[in-house]
Amino acid sequence: MVGVELVFLLGLGFMWILFATISDIKTREIPNWLNFSLIAFALGFRFFYSLFNLSDFSLFLQGLIGLAIFFILGNLFYYGRMFAGGDKKLMIALGAVLPVFPTFSENMNLFLVFFLFFFFAGAIYGIFGSIFIALKNFKVFKKGFKKLFNENKKILILSVSLGIILILLSFYIPSFLYLSIFSFVFPYFYIFIKTVDNFCMVKVVPYSKITPGDWLYEDVRVKGRTIRATWDGLSQEEIKLLKGKSKVKLRYGIVFAPVFFISFLAFVVFLITGLFEKFLAYLF
Predict the structure, then answer these.
(1) pTM of the model
(2) What are the pLDDT digits (tens) for 45-64?
(3) How many CA atoms, within 13 angstroms, populate the side-chain half-sphere of residue 163?
(4) Cα-to-chain-centroid distance, residue 170
(5) Nearest to 5 by CA among 43, 45, 62
(6) Which of 46, 21, 240 is nearest to 121 (CA)?
């Protein structure tokens, strides 16, 4: 598909993701109206363009199929604790934007390429983002890393022992050398990530700065009730219950909307420059 359809849908997605990224960076929140309006505009355009300019409704139907697929994926990422609520809804909204071809098979290839960009951008962004946060909060990080290191000494000893065994085995099976490197590095990487998450991303904030969706670091007992530290975050009712607390300990995640923006931008360039067809020809 070329022409107005492609330009409009990709342009719409680009602008909405840009706004979502700015909002996420400034307020650590992606408004619901932004995600829902992206779905409405994308599907609305598909419907009326199909009605007045095309001989069938394949453009609209592919948008609905994309929305359904990304609804499932967005929820999988959310309940797998990879996404916050706003990220999940932005992912779902993208399902209405990305299917720019008239057939299901072509759009499935398109989704594959997008997720390759998305996971690669997410991995790089997550690693460098964690390093930046660790350096920014170095004193807290140093104390937390030492604590977790001491708590996991047995696992580290087992990992190093396994690594040594794998090195010895690599003289007979060379590929075991890569497994030994993984055995040495992964435990330290895991402790690094857990330190950033459990120490550098936890802050004590005043009640006035709590917003719906914020994550409690731990369960809080207030007014005879226990407010659980769940992945869904705080509701408006729970925030009202916390009014008796002057300060609350919250857990923050890395702002993730930039990953959407980076991967979508790379995806658009890949698509409009013709690299998409060359990649598929090479892949299949």
Answers:
(1) 0.80
(2) 999 998 888 888 999 999 99
(3) 15
(4) 36
(5) 45
(6) 21
